[in-house]
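Re: the request from the purification team.
They wanted to know what the chain is likely to look like in 3D before they choose a buffer screen. I agreed to run a prediction and write the result into the notebook, where they can find it.
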Amino acid sequence: MLKAIFLAVPAALFATVLATASAGAAEPAYLDDRTDAASLVKSLYNAINRHEYARAWDYFGDEKPASDFAAFAQGYDTTAEVKVMTGSPASEGAAGSTFVYVPVAILSIDTDGGEKVYAGCYTARFVNPQIQEPPFNPLHIEKGSLQAVETAFEDSVPAQCPDAPPPEASDALLQQAKAAFAATQGDCEPDRAPEGEEAPVSYAIPFRYKADGDEQPMREARLFRFFCSMGAYNITHVYYLHNELDGLRELQFATPDIDVRYVDDNPDGQVDSVNIIGFLTADRLVNSAFDGATQSISAHSLWRGIGDASSSGLWIFRNGDFSLVKYEVDASYDGEINPETVLDYDTAP
């Protein structure tokens, strides 16, 4: 049975279930991503399920989950698979750091098929990068506490962590965003959200306006992503942004209006040309994600299931808003992934 279970958490963690490869199944693909909360959680358990315990050990801060690394690794000797489900986090700032409190449930599956459920809370810490000196200290687990429970895995996530601030103190903007989403996106289908998409995701974005001097303290914008709808191979999201000047507003993303021409007007044949004939705005993005490291939102729309035809965009956050900087189109239904860049303000000359 799992002897040592710890979870790294982000400043904006949403309820998600991470299903990893079980014994005898193909090894999960390598994932090492600290850019946001969900990615960090996935990376930790990806490392555990791949038996890369040194990487898993490194996701913790000074307070490690075992007396030494050997004891930590040995704690997973009989573990075949670990699944994690997280509840709604709460966060608060203190002395240049952000602390995030995340309710967690863990399902541990042994190599002999036995299962055990654990529940509790973890505290993660992110120190403002602008006040750090080398070596850089990224988002990490500060402390955690889990206990074995008898309830079903899907029912075991605590409603709130004991040390967390009251929901009204940490989630006021989130509640405003939820109300705006419900009022303006009536044709979305939140009740059809797949696992991991049920709750909106919130991100804190530190920034300065162009007019701000270096002495100006960093401002903070809050970005909220909501699941809207799901098709056979595409998921759509709606975004809301809050900053001190504009308040909360729904984001509209600039997108190129693309004209695709095919040889002999045959869509299944060779592409003759792909041209931008104007620009539109979109209030929904397809298969999108926010990257905290680059402060950018990417989207990738599949035109059919095998993914050989698609369109992709990249919007970077700067001066308090998101700007379209790159767009690619793969218009050939040829079984190959070969996108053509039609707009690029992102790549250095």
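For the purification team: The first helix runs from residue 37 to 49.
Please add any questions underneath this entry.
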